[in-house]
Amino acid sequence: MQVIYEGKTKSILRAGDRAVLRFKDAITGDAAGNINPGGDFVVGRLNGKGVASARVAAHFFELMGEAGVATHFCRLRSNNEIEVMLTTRIPLEVIYRAKACGSFLARYRGHIEPMAPLDTVEFNLKDAALSDPLITPHAVTKLGLASEGELHQIEAIARKVAALVARELSGRGLELVDMKLEFGRSNGALLVIDELSGDTMRVFDPEQQRLINQVELAGRLGLI
Asked: Helical H runs in 143-223?
């Protein structure tokens, strides 16, 4: 298979007319070495994380399919790989924030308490050279990245997926803090692409009063 992209937490490979997402044991964080699922630096390894991320991603894609949400997911290909359809990527990160955490707190420090309820959707331009900046819906349409109608549809899908994920986590005694989705187009239709796992969401254990890691998440969901 040909490598299309080599990322911090996964590799993307071409497999005929499909792609394969191969998950790694690498964990990300900030420049100081603090662990953060959305971090820009690889700060260590967690044994079993690649397997955990693949299984969690497959699990949530399957739940999305059952709920009528279109995705690029095809199948769990191996212990640490999922197979997906090729799509045209929309260069946006769509972030659903249930609670104030991470970069939201850093951006608005002094104006909101940690873990305060939010229920908000944000858009970031997916451009590593620009550090994936926050972008307004108006700017998205002006740059021609997505139409106004597509943005309304994207936000509605993000909220539907967030509700689905929150319900699944709640049944395991866990709480969704925030999550990142990406979208693509195939034959004119919007699809949820990339992946949704412990690499792209924060999950809080209210009993232990802490965020849990990717392997713990897979375990609590009964996937490993």
From this structure: 148-170, 214-220
> pLDDT tens string for the chain (224 positions)?
899 999 999 999 999 999 999 999 999 988 777 778 878 888 899 999 999 999 999 999 999 999 999 999 999 999 999 999 999 999 999 999 999 999 999 999 999 999 999 999 999 999 999 999 999 999 999 999 999 999 999 999 999 999 999 999 999 999 999 999 999 999 999 999 999 999 999 999 999 999 999 999 999 999 99
Q: Does 74 share its domain with 142?
A: no
Global model pTM greater than 0.85: yes
Structural domain boundaries, residue 48? 2-85
Gap between the Cα atoms of 106 and 101, Å rounded: 8
92 and 81, same domain (yes or no): no
Same domain (yes/no): 155, 73: no
Q: Considering only CA atoms, which of 221, 157, 191, 185 is closest in space to residue 73?
A: 191
